[in-house]
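To: structure desk
From: M.T.
Subject: fold request, one chain
Message: Could you run this one when you get a chance? Sequence is below, nothing fancy, just the single chain.
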Amino acid sequence: MRIAVTGASGLIGSALVPRLRADGHEVQRLVRRAAAAPDEIRWDPSAGTVDLDALQGIDGVVHLAGAGVGDHRWTDDYKREILESRTRGTDTIVRAMLQLEPGPRVLVSGSAIGWYGDTGERAVDESAPAGSGFLADVVKAWEAATEPAAAAGIRVVRARTGLVVARGGGAWARMFPLFRMGVGGRLGSGRQYWSWISLRDEVSALALCLTDARLSGAVNLTGPVPMTNAEVTSAMGRVMGRPTLLPVPSIALKIALGEFSTEVLGSSRVLPAALESVGFTWADPTVEAAITTAWQSS
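Reply: Done. Structure tokens follow.
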């Protein structure tokens, strides 16, 4: 297949592109600057433009671009950027796909388990309705932007990704240095569920979403067993051989992170029912295995 990928320089995209090429696919990376290599295609999601001529012959798209949720404090301006970077980018990609003839057969569009909101101790799968809160509202709008593609007969997968265990980005990139110094600990009560996935399983799941016609609609990209923050903390300590005795009080997180602290302290117990239904095999089926893989990576 000839695959176009947005967000190719991000944590997930930079791991996905070589995996797709190793699987025999031709990959074109969408970039916001002038294309400078044969595998690059210029796009400008803010302006809603894509180089349609360069996209001709694309069989599928993996759309991962969007502003980082935890990269900055949630000011009104940054919350707007989080939302608009997803809705405008997705709208741009979908409109471009609909203009191509012949058109791509599949769109794997990034999404997030934020769809479910705070689930407490209640386990949810892809059949669960949307929750409430800022991120749930963002994900609803983000996924809605893919609907014209589905209406046109394109197979659309909305890849609801959990917390990716990796040293190169995301929540774990901040956690590893703290635990290495022996100052890591549970966050708040530690009873909140974290739905995690290792980076290599995230990439494998995205690759499967591209090629397996049985997958469409919402697909949760998480490990098979969500764990509480306290259990994750203990696993970090075991893998890294460090104490985990210093809990971070909820009030300290609220002061340091502002509104984003509600997501850190919230609970998401999300199950990957769609992946399990097609027999997906996790390389890292436990959080301890995922942490070990990430910690031993270069």
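Reply (cont.): The longest helix spans residues 76-99. Let me know if you need anything else for the meeting.
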